[in-house]
Every structure is written in C-alpha cells, then in structure tokens.
Amino acid sequence: MKPQSAFFEARGWEGVRAFENVCAYARGAGMLVIADVKRGDIGTTAQAYVDAVRPHADAATVNPYLGGDALQPFLEACRDGFGIFVLVKTSNPGSGDVQDAPLADGRRVWELVAERVAQWGREAPSVGAVVGATYPDELATARALLPHAPFLLPGVGAQGATVADCAPAFAGPALVSSSRAVIFADDPAAEAERLAREVWDVARAA
After folding, report:
1. Homologous superfamily of 5-205
2. Which residues participate in catalysis according to the annotation?
C-alpha cells in the first residue's frame, strides 16, 4: 500500500488522522505500507520527518537533492528496520529538466544519484530507488547501476507506462505502483488482481 500523503494533508488535521487510519488498516491486513511523502531536509527537520512517518509506515519515499546529510536520519532509521525509496529518475514528464542534466564526465544527474543510492545501500539496509516506468531505457540503465536495490516503479496506468515497460527492473527486486488506474476502475479490486497477475507474468518472463 502506498498512500500519497499530500491528498490527506490537504484536508487538515482530519486528513492527517485519516492517513494514520489508512496506514493502520493496511498494516492490520498484513500489508507493508510505503508512505509516499518525498521528504528531504536537513538536521532536526529531517529527523522530525522520520519521527512523523515512521510510526505509521514501513518505508517512505525521500528526496535526495539536498544531499546526503538530508537523508542521514532516514539512513539511521534503515539500520533499525525502516526502509526508504530514494527519488532517482522520476516518472513525470519534466523530470529531465534537472535529472537528465549532463555532468562534466558525461553522466546525467540521476545517474550520479543512483551511484549515491548504491553507496547508501552499502551503509544501511533497505535502501531502494524510485525509477519511473515511463522511462524504460533509463530503467535498464538504473538496474545496471543498482543490481540489488529494490525499485519502486511509478507511472503504470494513468501516466502511460505499461507493465511490460517495467521488465528491465525485474532483474532485481521491484514493486510496480499503479494508483489512479486502480482507484478509478469500475471494479478496483478486480483491476488490482488483474494488474498483479500481469506483473508476475512479465517478471517471470524477464
């Protein structure tokens, strides 16, 4: 389960309470919860973000673009059973504005971030990467850079990616994320089951 906190926070304190209730319900049903919060800040603020999300989720999405010190409290939490998915190459159309910018050595910015994720993964367990399924070529490159990291793959469904686009990621551990295509389906449960079967079929064939 990957609840997006912004839609809850927009409703004020009642939304925050609803977010907590959704997470508790999912965990009670035996599901892992990834809080889609995309947090990233420095010092005590970063620690406060950890303290805010960790009681309700098993992992969180985090933003690395403030640098390693912004993720340090999250990495410390990873040493004690928590998990993070670091934004590497995101699924949105404008991701290339910054993430695809070339470095002096020819790499792109997101490839540098992927290398940092590999380093952080050696320092702490449960460090994964967010890589958009909307960019299958980059997905293959990311998997080569991060052969063992768990990937969170947004973009399937409403953003235009297909499960087949995720195939390069299945050389390692990966989670496919599809939100609107499931939520707004005529039968969300049936669509979720169909999507899960398709993911397993593609993963086995990869």
Report:
1. Aldolase class I (3.20.20.70)
2. 38
